[in-house]
Amino acid sequence: MNYYSLNKKSKNVSFKEALIRGLAPDKGLYFPEKIMKLPNSFINNLKDFSNEEIAYECIKQFVGEDIPESDLRKIISDVLSFDFPLVKLNSQISFLELFHGPTMAFKDVGARFMSRCLAYFLSNQEENKPVTVLVATSGDTGGAVASGFYKVKGIKVVILYPKGKVSNVQEKQLTTLGENITALEIDGTFDDCQAMVKTAFLDNDLLNKIRLTSANSINIARWLPQMFYFFFSYRDLKLEQGDKIAFSVPSGNFGNICAGMMAKEMGLPIDKFIASNNINDVVNRYLNTKIYDSKPSIQTISNAMDVGDPSNFIRISNIYKNDFNLIKESLYTCSFTDDETEEGIKELISEFNYIPDPHGAVGYLGAKDFIKSHPNYKCIILETAHPAKFSEVINLYTNNLEIPSQIISVMDKKKESINIDSYLAFKNYLLDI
Ligand SMILES: *Cc1c(COP(=O)(O)O)cnc(C)c1O
Predict the structure, then answer these.
(1) What is the pLDDT of residue 173?
(2) pTM of full prediction above 0.85
(3) Which terminal residue of the chain, N or C, has fewer Cβ atoms less than 10 Å from its own Cβ?
(4) CA 385 to ligand 1: nearest atom
(5) What does DSSP assign to residue 385?
(6) Which residues lie below 8 Å from residue 322, measured CB to CB, with a gap of 6+?
(7) In whole angstroms, how large is the CA radius of gyration of the chain?
(8) Which region holds residue 151: left if phi is over 0, alpha if psi is between -120 and 50, else beta?
(9) For atom 1 of ligand 1, which residue has the closest CA?
(10) Is residue 271 part of a domain?
């Protein structure tokens, strides 16, 4: 399988090259040349397949010849070494818990898949020039990438995060590993962090000296594996005749929801995607006004979705042939304030005895809003992080939040980070390591 750049000015490349480059030389996002439908015999009989088998069937066309079957199966089984439970709230709504991995956010799946594929490619090549993985994070990506790449030979990870704008647990996950992982603290917003990373990828002086790749969801190896859990949960949901299915996806950069759309393109019968946003809702406004008007991000309690200009929206447009009406047919959007999110948290705790994280609560509000006008749907909400990652917020509403051992152990460690105040300082840092 080859990938083309959505800017259409670079040559097509294999999975391996798209993964290593992150972004095409013309700065476009890579997109697969073809999306092949999976056989009906597979889609209709998902219940006969394990998570690992499903993941292999889904991803093999996108990896192509670049990783042999046995190695790819090994990578997948290593990546998926935790559960993806579906928790039913009522007859219509379920939570798909994606937080049972090492950093307790859904990004563990993509980060682990990318790191293992990259390690595979580096171990199988003669020249052993190290790769520096850059990642801008609004909270969860950095931790998942740090954990996924920790101690992987030949790879250095540099994380940029906005000072004072990530939760305590998130910050500890970013800043306490050491070894090949460094955290840079930026005096600014997530958008400023992302802008620095983008500038680095445009900086030929830098690119001539070091090998850079990105581990944000622009990287196909981070993005594509996210399609797995749409298949897992579809398998686990008990559908009845006439039921339609919608996924409510708490969305920031729109990578997760776009992976779901890929699953649909491959034949998974999903009827609707709900992009549940906080007040950073450029796509919602676009679908209501036809005007795409990106704005600087505003800080909220669901901070992993504080994104002003979602980088994967261009992939969504591409899936739907840049046709506004086709996008609107498939995608339902909505946006909620922090006050509404807090009401959602309270309601989930009091009515269902379910403790969500703030992102999951936004997903719940989106599902509720959608179901009002679509009563014949069953809705799966992606619960994208463990509530204990946001205990500052969640403890206001319950005394029953249990702190998992992964989080307790990281909180005891000492933070180490470097303050960076300009692109030049960032560049000099990269040239020095
Ligand atoms: C990253 C993240 C999101 C947003 O996912 P996108 O793929 O960027 O849309 C939502 N919730 C949590 C907890 C996250 O970490």
Answers:
(1) 94
(2) yes
(3) C
(4) 13
(5) B
(6) none
(7) 20
(8) left
(9) 304
(10) yes
CA distance 10 to 4: 7
Q: Output DSSP code: residue 305.
A: G
pLDDT at 350: 97
Q: Which of 407, 138, 169 is nearest to 296 (CA)?
A: 138
39 CA distance to ligand 1 centroid (A)?
Answer: 30
Identify the DSSP state of 46: G
pLDDT of res. 127: 61
DSSP, residue by residue, 280-304: --HHHHHHHHS----------SSGG
42 lines ligand 1 (CB under 6 A): no
Residue 370 lies in a domain: yes
List, in sequence order, the alpha helices (H) in 82-176.
107-123, 140-149, 168-175
Rounded (5°) CA angle 106-108-109: 85
Query: Do residues 336 and 365 lie in contact, with contact meaning Cβ atoms separated by under 8 Å?
Result: yes
**Is 60 a residue of the active site?**
no
Choosing from 107, 198, 368, 389, the catalytic residue is 107
Q: Domain span at residue 343?
A: 83-105+223-401
Taking phi over 0 as left and psi of -120 to 50 as alpha, with beta for the rest, 67 belongs to beta
* Residue 125: burial class (beta carbons within 10 Å; 0-12, 13-18, 19+): exposed
**Euclidean distance between CA atoms 156 and 134, whole angstroms:** 9
225 lines ligand 1 (CB under 6 A): no
371 falls within a domain: yes
Q: Please answer whether residues 386 and 170 qualify as being in contact, where contact means their C-beta atoms are separated by less than 8 angstroms.
A: no
Any domain includes 138: no
Domain of 318, CATH number, reads 3.40.50.1100
C-beta atoms surrounding 378 within 10 Å: 19
Instruction: Give the residue among 93, 110, 140 at the shortest CA–CA distance from 247.
Output: 93
Q: What pLDDT does residue 262 have? A: 98
Judge residue 352's burial from the number of C-beta atoms within 10 Å of its C-beta, 0-12 exposed, 13-18 middle, 19 or more buried: middle
- State which residues of the chain have pLDDT below 50: none
**Is the separation of the CB atoms in 136 and 190 below 8 Å?**
yes
- Our count of domains for the chain comes to 1
What pLDDT is recorded for position 193?
92
CA-wise closest residue to 109 among 262, 253, 225, 247: 225
Distance CA 115, CA 399 (A): 37
C-alpha to C-alpha distance for 184 and 420, rounded to whole angstroms: 6
